[in-house]
Amino acid sequence: MKKSIDLPSYLDQSEEVKARFERLKSREVILEVKNLCKDYKTGKGSVTALKNVNFKTHRREFVCVIGPSGCGKSTLIRILAGLESHTSGDVLLDGNPVTGPGRDRGMVFQGYTLFPWLTVKKNVMFGLEMNNMSETQAASEAALWLDMIGLEKFANSYPHELSGGMKQRVAIARALVNQPRILLMDEPFGALDAQSRSKMQSHLLEIWRNVDITVLFITHDLDEAIFLADRILVLKAHPGEVQELIEVPVPRPRGAMQFNSPEFLATKARLDELIHPPVVEQDVEIEVKPHMIRFTNVEDNVE
Amino acid sequence: MNLASWFAVRRELSSKKRMLLSVGSFLLPLLIWCMVSYVPGIWHPMVMISNPGDVDYFQNGMLVDRDAFDEELKNMQSAHKALPKGDPANPIYLPAPHEVAKAFYTGFTTPPQQQDGQWLHESLLHSIKIIFWGFVLSSLIGVPLGILCGTYSAISRLTEPFVEFFRYLPAPAFGALAVAVLGIYDGPKIAIIVIGTLFQQILIIANTTRNLDYALIEAALTLGTNRFKLLFHVILPGILPALYRDQRILLGWAWTYLIVAELIGTSSGITWFITQQARYQHFDNVYAAIIMIGLLGLGGDLILAAIGKRLFRWDRPANKE
User: Fold this and answer.
1) ω into residue B188 within 30 of 0, thus cis?
2) Cβ pair B237:A159 closer than 8 A
3) Which among B36, B219, B132 is positioned nearest to A101, based on CA atoms?
4) A126, B222: Cβ pair inside 8 Å?
5) pLDDT digits over B57-99, tens only?
6) pLDDT grade, residue B318 (50/70/90)?
7) Partner residue opposite B233 with nearest CB, options A101, A130, A174
8) Which of A251, A301, B42, B289 has the most beta carbons within 10 angstroms of its beta carbon?
9) Cβ of B224 and A130 within 8 Å?
10) Is A109 in the B-facing interface, judged by CB distances under 8 Å?
């Protein structure tokens, strides 16, 4: 809390950033979510997972969705992908309601979902071939994308021969080769170690800069959200509701040194406040109270 | 070599140790068999008469219980007559390893005793033919139906409850019925193998299909795959290695139904050979034939495993096997 005194407000935007947001909002709306609700029926009755979620995403915007566990962020993205139904409200892609999964919404999952029986190249070609593109044409498109993600050398490898980061690169290429309107990413780097994770973040931004794609990215990592996003949709749990849609004041292009910039820290402080509110303690489901007992000699002090 | 390295909990052994132990697993029962057969002090509950002495019903080469022999020996002693002589022996139904080994060879070289009888290799071939057709027919129905059950809940609900019931019905119970419907030759035998295999096959393959990671199906859906293509481009290739392993196990089950199947109608194949040989008390031939069935089964499975390893290079668990 002390820190926030000398930090600028996360609402302050430099002229440059303000102009970027103006331009962003003037682009057409790709995804619109209106009064989205989702109830789960359980044995004890129904549980509300999402309640009145509203937001709009513009073309080539990078949106991160963040929230505490149980806020329904995975449910949200699965509804957007058409993998789950919603109870009420609308999901509109280019103004048309979403009814089921389709190639206009690419998805990258947290788990590795490359088809293990296909080579890397065949994995990337999969979507194109499913949509009746000829094999030669699909192969040439796939080659282009493999080059873009830097895995052309692994074209004929099988997924189990790749590292986690490489697998997710292929998953991104596999989704993007289909030319979706929006790329949905459900904690795609959650299983990676810190180093490959930050590499993948930069790589994803680079792809996003060069491809006409709108990204909706779910994460629970505050730094990741601020580093990647134009805007951050903050959800709260029980029921899942939108708490705030934060416009990230950190200028682009983003780089590792911005992690300590005042805008970055201010945004992070705000996110921290929203996601870990100080009064929430009595709300914790199972209270864990450690009771420390010393098993060592008093004089054997490690600090 | 320390003992701890042999008994580390759930650790892989070195390939040398693995080989050594695998060979040992065959040598150990063979060793026990050799001991029982060749070491006179172990078991040998019978006596092979080498000289009948004055016992009127003893003959040279006759096998008698040791108790009976001892009693006659006592009788002769007290009557001061010529004593019978004999060597400890095992019962006729436990031939020694070398006799069985010889039978392995002579089984193939001995012409059939009956005029219309079959040579051993003809019997074996006939058995393999029965297994083959039984398994192929069962798979033609069981594999597609199993996959459909694992894919569509509606088909699963419509099929599986009845299949669950039917698989508890012992296949041999249908023997008489199969003969009435299909005649006395190969038809009912194949039918028994189909009945014995099919119902398990449907359930096992349905389960294998359900075990396919659902995330792969979701990924395919978000890539614009339609339902029809999903079956042939995701589900089928995804389960193929597991399906192949299932089929290997099911083929083993088909073998276990072989003997029962071949007793139905006119006895045929390796079972006919075994029952004939047992009737003439040629137990060395019986053992040789039983071991042959085992070798055929194991050999076939090893070949299939090797083929599977080549076919599914992308499947890591299979390659580890």
Assistant:
1) no
2) no
3) B219
4) no
5) 888 888 999 999 999 999 999 999 889 998 889 998 999 999 9
6) very low
7) A130
8) B289
9) yes
10) yes
Instruction: Identify the closest residue of chain B to A124 by CA–CA distance.
Output: B223
Any CB–CB contact under 8 A between B320 and chain A?
A: no
Query: CB of B313 within 8 Å of any CB in chain A?
Result: yes
Interface check for B231 against chain A (CB to CB < 8 A): the answer is: no
Please name the residues between 1 and 60 in chain B that touch chain A, using a CB distance below 8 Å: none
Identity of residue A188: P
Cα–Cα dist B86/B70, whole Å: 10
Nearest-CA distance B168 → chain A (Å):
34
pLDDT in tens, A15-29: 888 899 999 999 999
Contacts (Cβ under 8 Å, ≥6 apart) of B8: none
CB atoms within 10 A of CB B206: 23
Q: Kindly state the percentage of chain A with pLDDT values over 90.
A: 66
- A238 or A82, which is more confident: A82
**DSSP letter assigned to residue B94:** S
Tell me the residue ranges of DSSP E strands in chain B: 46-51, 63-65, 85-89
The CATH number of the structural domain formed by B107-320 is 1.10.3720.10
- Nearest Cα to A244, choosing from A78, A71, A104, A22? A71
- Residue among A164, A197, A174, A55 nearest A107 (CA): A174
pLDDT at B317 over 90: no
Give the residue extent of every domain in chain A: 3-278
User: Are the Cβ atoms of A101 and B222 closer than 8 angstroms?
Assistant: yes
pLDDT of residue A279: 58
On the question of pLDDT at A4 being above 50, the answer is: no
Alpha helices (H) along chain A = 3-6, 15-26, 73-81, 120-130, 135-148, 164-176, 194-210, 222-228, 262-275
Token pair 């509950």 is found at B45
- Taking CB atoms and an 8 Å cut-off, how many pairs form between chains A and B? 76
pLDDT at B1: 60
**Residues in Cβ contact with A234 at an 8 Å cutoff, skipping those fewer than 6 apart:** A66, A67, A242, A243, A244, A245, A246, A271, A274, A275
CA atoms A84, A93, A134, A154: torsion sign: negative
Give the residue from chain B lying closest to A128, CA to CA.
Answer: B223
CATH architecture, range A3-278 = 3-Layer(aba) Sandwich (3.40)
What CA–CA distance (Å, rounded) separates B252 from B242?
16
The rounded mean pLDDT for chain B is: 90
Q: Do B220 and A178 touch (CB under 8 A)?
A: no
CA closest to B217 among chain A residues: A113
Distance, in Å, from the CA atom of B46 to the CA atom of B91, rounded to the nearest integer, reads 6
Residue B46: closest CA among B107, B93, B2, B100: B93
